[in-house]
Amino acid sequence: MSDLDLRVLLALERLELNLFRGRSPIDDRPRIFGGQVIAQALLAAYETVTDRVCHSLHAYFIRPGDPRIPIIYEVDRARDGASFTTRRVIAIQNGRQIFNMAASFQQPEGGVEHQDAMPQGLPGPDGFPTLAELETNYLAKQAPPRSELRGPDPFDMAAEGGRQVRRVELADPDLGCDLQRRSGRDEQLILPIGQDVAHG
């Protein structure tokens, strides 16, 4: 996908009342990225829910997905209660499940909330090397040198202190990151849960 537009990547085609089709970007990855399947499955569930937000989901990857084949998402409307709604979503390729998910939605309401305080002393987004810069440096050190580690990505991520955010390494559990959408940085991405992701 050349423009790396997240909205295009996650778009679903409605085939029936509870049946949707999603597609994968055309690149050289042998398998579908799991985050894409979760996002499309959640969006399929949201297509069957009104005025509620997802507060919990459990997902299982059963088989690897083939990016050359569309994914069919079947939504089971398990329950529509007074306060909670439950959905099950199955992702199918070639007649076989590759993924399933259970999600619970509820009416927005107040309650106990917790969030860690923003760490002090972190540099702004321009103070972090981007993921692309980290990968370029990493690939240049390979023998023989490689030109690309993975396909296009709809996000650009920069990590504090040049740490590799996608590699396992021994470090403190806290990591400062800046995450931005590559295309349409001046726009806001409206999420179905009603929260705006601002770009800076």
List the helices and strands and how they pair.
Blueprint (H helix, E strand, L loop, with lengths): L5 H5 L1 E5 L2 E4 L11 H13 L6 E9 L9 E10 L3 E10 L2 E11 L24 H10 L14 E5 L17 E5 L7 E2 L5 E2 L3
Antiparallel strand pairs: 1-2, 2-4, 3-6, 4-5, 5-6, 7-8, 9-10
Structure write-up:
The chain is α+β, with helices and mostly antiparallel strands and 200 residues long. The chain has 2 domains: 6-106, Hotdog Thioesterase (Thiol Ester Dehydrase, Chain A, Roll), CATH 3.10.129.10; 125-197, no CATH class. Helices cover 14% and strands 32% of the residues. It contains 3 helices and 10 strands; from the N terminus they run αββαββββαββββ. The chain has a 6-stranded antiparallel beta sheet with strand order 1-2-4-5-6-3, with helices on one face. The two termini are 24 Å apart. The model is unreliable at 189-200 (pLDDT under 50).
Question: What is this entry, summarized?
Answer:
Helices cover 14% and strands 32% of the residues. The chain has 200 residues and is of the alpha+beta class. It folds into two domains: 6-106, Roll (Thiol Ester Dehydrase, Chain A), CATH 3.10.129; 125-197, no CATH class.
Which CATH C-level class of the largest domain is it?
Answer: Alpha Beta
Q: Strands of the biggest beta sheet: in what spatial order?
A: 1-2-4-5-6-3
Number of DSSP strand runs? 10
Order of helices and strands: HEEHEEEEHEEEE
In CATH, the homologous superfamily of the largest domain goes by the name: Hotdog Thioesterase
Output the number of helix runs.
3
Tally of discrete structural domains: 2
Mean residue pLDDT? 79
Using the coordinates shown, work out and report the CATH topology of the largest domain: Thiol Ester Dehydrase, Chain A
Beta fraction of the residues?
A: 25-35%
Compute the gyration radius: what is it? 19 Å
Structural class: alpha+beta
The CATH architecture designation of the largest domain is Roll
Note the overall shape: flat
The span between the termini is 24 Å
Uncertain segments are 189-200
Helical percentage: 10-25%
